[in-house]
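Work package 3, deliverable 3.1, input record:
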Amino acid sequence: MVGLLAQAGEAARLDTPEVEWTALAPVLVMIGGAVLLMVVAALAPRGSRVGWHAIVTIAVAVAAIATVVPQWNRVGDDGPFSVVAGSVGVDRFSLFLTVVICASVVIATLFTDGYLRREGLEGAEPYVLMLLSASGGLIMASANDLIVMFLGLEILSIAVYVLAGMHLRRVRSGEAAIKYFVLGAFSSAFFLYGVAMVYGATGSTNLVEVADFLARNTLADSGLLVAGFALLLVGFGFKVAAVPFHSWTPDVYQGSPTPIVSYMASGVKAAGFAGLLRVFVVTFGDYRLDWQPIVYWVAVLSLLVGAVLAVVQTDVKRAMAYSSINHAGFILMGVQAASDRGVSAALFYLAAYTFMVAGTFGVLTVVGRRGDGHHQLSDYAGLGRREPLLALALVVFLLAQAGTPLTSGFLAKFYVIDAAIESRSFWLALVAMLSAVISAFLYLRIILAMYGSSDDAETADGAAATAGPRLRVPAAAGIALVIAVVATIGIGLVPDPLSETARDATPELVASGD
Amino acid sequence: MLLNQFLILSAVLFAIGVYGVIARRNGVAVLMSIELILNAVNINLVAFSAMTGTLAGQVFALFVIAIAAAEVGVGLAIVLVIYRNRRSIDLDEVDLMRG
């Protein structure tokens, strides 16, 4: 032993690769926080009155956002850089989405706390899984290598499969989990096959090297590459719930615990679009003529199918699932433009959408009552009289989703349509506006149900009689709703800070320094 | 051996896996089909790695094996929950929600 140590002392210093840990801080904070929470929760007695699991989770997510600030300034001073041998890139694009994903975790956590108490499911596991899943999203946002992108995608997804099945006693929760899992694993496998194809065509998995190779060489036979594009698009299309890869969305959103859906619709979607934008718009930008038409039609189908099928639903949660497909179509318009303006429009949309959709599902969590089963349109009848504040919050979120002026939704839709027109996709812009009109019908229908007059009075009384006691809005959920309402209206009234930040946040590929 | 032979083998395995996911009703058989697809990708990756002479593909194959293990672990747990709740793992019967 002593001899070994002496030998080690004499030996030359090992040349270990340099890793800039500060650049990985957001991911490390999230994973470290998750592991810490898991260990402490296993040792501490269960069932305390204070929701310290939720408080720790929020602290971790806020700490991750705090680590972004110095890096944002550093990127501003020195330009974007890459770390870990060029496999993780740090640019303002990745930092922007880091903040968006962490914000969605904060809001979803606030709703989860009340939900878990109501359903008698207290425990740290949902929070741990949410933090781990979000760390996968952060990895996807900053991945500079297809291997890292795939690892991020799987870290993101596997945790969410479990979260979907979190409510062990509800059969529907298990059904949502198995459907999400089977189709999710299936699409991940397609994604992986696509990575293999791109690797075969270009000889590298590093996005910088792939982009370099495509810029320098003209492929005699681009079949392998285009097959790779198509398969990668299937993988991303599934994660962002775009038609025709959307079939899981309604079932999974309807069956999963509602606060988890708020995370799925905001955080998971943002991570999916992060990967889509970085891989397609930035890396395969030179081959945009090959993939733009596919994205164009996926966007058209998502816009129309999402809007039309949302209107015919009677289950509000399911209708919101279709509405999220419609929103995915809007964000895809930014991807399809394949320009800086398209990217910043997509980023603005994702940031604004995070708050409005998380808030919407937050209200649905409260209205769902014990058992999480009251999501029919009739359960909303007379909500405006019974719970004026809650109904008002839902009105704000629904109007924002419909794209009413003075809310964040209007400018979000305006920017993506603007980007589509700039790239001369006039028909796409027209379809988008048409679908906005169709889906506005859905949102208005819910609002009318809440404030329904005259002939609804008796049904409202009936509903009040069957619904029993007043809805209880937990304090944490109240805080989250206030945050979401303020953000939704605030971004609508003063959009400049966010839109300028989104404009700065262009993705760039940087090769490793050495 | 020619590269094509590996690619064809991989494509055949991939197709069998896709067929399995779509057509099989047994939850565990579906999990096995997903494994088959992932292993088809591994063959591809190693073949391309040998063709281009870069190591990335082989390293990636190791990562894929690890991920596949994690995925099957979670998948079996979910199938178990389904089985506890309804005493069957026939995925065609899992259809409370539709429309």
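The longest helix of chain B spans residues 56-86.
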